Amino acid sequence: MGFKTPCPIHFTEEDIQNHMRDGEGWNEQAIFWERLEGFVARDGWTLHEMYKDALDMFAGLGEEGLKQMSGKEREEFEKQTKWAARSD
User: Fold this and answer.
1) Is the dihedral of CA 74, 75, 77, 83 positive or negative?
2) Angle CA(25)–CA(32)–CA(56) in degrees, nearest 5?
3) Which of 64, 68, 46 is nearest to 55 (CA)?
4) pLDDT score recorded for residue 51
5) How far apart are CA 88 and CA 82, in angstroms?
6) What is residue 11's predicted lDDT score, i.e. its pLDDT?
7) What span, in angstroms and rounded, lies between the C-alpha atoms of 58 and 63?
8) Are the C-beta atoms of 77 and 66 separated by less than 8 Å?
9) Nearest to 74 by CA among 86, 65, 61, 83
10) Per-residue pLDDT, 45
11) Distance (Å, rounded) from C-alpha 60 to C-alpha 33?
12) What are the Cα distances from residue 6, in Å, to 3, 15, 28?
């Protein structure tokens, strides 16, 4: 572009590492929600006719997640996902 002034924005190695760490999993989450398009929106909205199927899907994901967690992480996950517990 022909500018002769140096860029005033600089990032430390720590800034870059923090950015990389914070961004981990973002693409996977984006792909997950893209695959649900037409079934469940990113904000959780679904058609009335699909509600039970959506709830069952999220309950299953929650159950699988709990199998892999323990301690404080598990407690937090349970609090955040109890809305999707199965009520069979």
Assistant:
1) positive
2) 120
3) 46
4) 93
5) 14
6) 95
7) 9
8) yes
9) 65
10) 92
11) 16
12) 8, 20, 36
Structure tokens at 37: 């398009």
For CA atoms 28, 31, 37, 42, give the dihedral sign: positive
Per-residue pLDDT tens over the stretch 3-14: 888 888 999 999
Structure tokens at 47: 């058609």
Write out the DSSP string of the chain: ----SPPS----HHHHHHHHHHHTTHHHHHHHHHHTTTTS-TTS---GGGHHHHHHHHHHHHHHHHHT--HHHHHHHHHHHGGG----
Query: From its phi and psi, is residue 2 left (phi > 0), alpha (psi between -120 and 50) or beta?
Result: left
**Residue 81: closest CA among 63, 71, 67:** 63
